[in-house]
Design brief:
Blueprint: H1 4-14, H2 22-42, H3 47-68, H4 77-84, H5 87-107, H6 109-118, H7 122-128, H8 134-145, H9 149-157, H10 160-168, H11 174-195
Helix pairs in contact: 1-11, 2-3, 2-11, 3-4, 3-5, 3-7, 3-11, 5-6, 5-8, 7-8, 10-11
């Protein structure tokens, strides 16, 4: 398994290496669109909760496609394809994911955080294995993340400096960090999947 520094380096290369390059701006646009949809549905309180899995599958499909070289930076349609490939499965996966995290969080905050890292690869797993049920995808994510939760936590933590820098620009700068984080998580998934193949 490569280091977190190498994961971030691959993610930056994927995004063209510069925050104002097309490879960075298109995923930024995608995440803004998905956030706008989520915000619009949040007005109904339950709306964003229900559609969460579909939006996550859309984002995951785009970024994993970029990592694998099967999706061009400008091909935002890949996100639509990922979302509609199994709408029902994505919807139920998102619901179960949120319910499980919420239930674990009701115990204490820490178990909720730990479980969120256990389930972190659920949407990538579901996209790669559409034959799996939502609960099986969550279980497979738990298997993959066994022994890697701290590594992903430290990867996420490494973006704190970027987030603080972005916050100094009235929060607008944090928008550019989101594609970097998503690309890094996609690279992370590929590395874990290679290290722990399904038997």
């Amino acid at each position: 398994m490569i280091s977190n520094a190498e994961i971030r380096s691959r993610a930056r290369a994927l995004l063209g290496g510069g925050i104002f390059k097309n490879e960075w701006l298109y995923p930024l646009l995608l995440l803004l669109i998905l956030s706008a949809i989520s915000a619009a549905l949040a007005a109904t309180a339950v709306g964003a909760f229900i559609i969460y899995g579909i939006l996550m599958c859309a984002s995951s499909a785009y970024f994993i496609g970029r990592v694998r070289g099967s999706v061009e930076a400008t091909d935002l349609g890949a996100a639509v394809d990922g979302a509609k490939a199994d709408i029902g499965g994505a919807l139920i996966t998102g619901l179960l994911y949120n319910i499980f995290i919420m239930l674990w969080s009701m115990l204490f905050v820490i178990p909720g955080i730990v479980k969120s890292y256990s389930y972190a690869l659920t949407y990538y797993v579901k996209l790669d294995n559409p034959e799996l049920s939502p609960t099986e995808a969550i279980t497979e994510s738990r298997r993959l993340m066994n022994g890697y939760k701290m590594k992903l936590f430290l990867l996420d933590l490494s973006f704190i400096g970027w987030m603080l820098l972005g916050a100094l620009c009235l929060g607008v700068g944090t928008l550019w960090v989101a594609p970097y984080m998503e690309a890094s998580r996609a690279v992370f998934y590929e590395e874990v999947r290679a290290a722990k193949p399904r038997t």
